[in-house]
Each structure stands twice: as C-alpha cells, then as structure tokens.
Specification:
By secondary structure, the chain is mainly α. It is about 55% helix and about 0% strand.
C-alpha cells in the first residue's frame, strides 16, 4: 500500500516529492555521520566499515521512516513553495478556504437607517 501511495505522490508532486525525499536522506546521512564521528558506535556496523559506510548503513535502516516522512511532508513543502512563489508550473494547489463574508439580505427601498442620510 505504501508503494502505491508513493507512486501517487510522485505523479502528483513530481520534483517536490523527490526533493523532499533526497533532502531527508541527506539530513539523516549527515546526522548519522556526525553522531558516529562524535563517538556514537552503532552495534550493527562491522569494525572495518568507514564513517560514511556506517552512516549509510544506519540511513538505509531508517528508510521506511524516511518514506513515511516524505509522504507526510511533501504536500506541506509543496504548499509552502507555492506560497513563496517558487512553484508556479507544477500542478495547481487546491485553493485556500476563504473567510465567509456576511452578506445580509438586500435592503428594501426606504429602509435605510437615519444615520446614513435622507432617503431620496
């Protein structure tokens, strides 16, 4: 089911979905690399694996979480990019709900209040 949702997301948002996914990938990879370089030692990484190798393995383990985050964040990112004017050619976003205006019934002739001046 997630594969179908991801396919639909890619069809609907295209470059925004890919950008969101790869941005999350890069952030997680860099986060793991930073954590490992500061002393965190993942137990599943073999001793001979380098820093980026260990960070890549840890990033691959989190792939289902990143896919879920991509599914959740892509519509928000697309909406933000549309508001900022960055996206114009992608599929149009649904219009924002507008505040309802109070439009009362039309006034009957000669029923204006006295403060608005004389009635012709």
């Amino acid at each position: 089911m997630t594969r179908e949702r991801l396919k639909t997301l890619l069809e609907e948002y295209g470059k925004v979905a890919l950008g969101t996914y790869f941005t999350l990938f890069a952030l997680v990879l860099l986060g793991f690399a930073l954590a490992i370089s500061t002393g965190f030692q993942p137990e599943s990484a073999p001793g001979g694996v380098g820093l980026l190798g260990a960070a890549y393995i840890a990033t691959k383990v989190t792939q289902p979480i990143r896919i879920g985050a991509t599914l959740l964040l892509t519509p928000l990112v697309a909406r933000l990019l549309h508001k900022l004017g960055v996206l114009k050619s992608e599929k149009a976003m649904p219009p924002e709900p507008q505040a309802a205006t109070k439009a009362g019934p039309p006034e009957a002739p000669g029923t204006r209040d006295a403060s608005s001046g004389p009635t012709p």
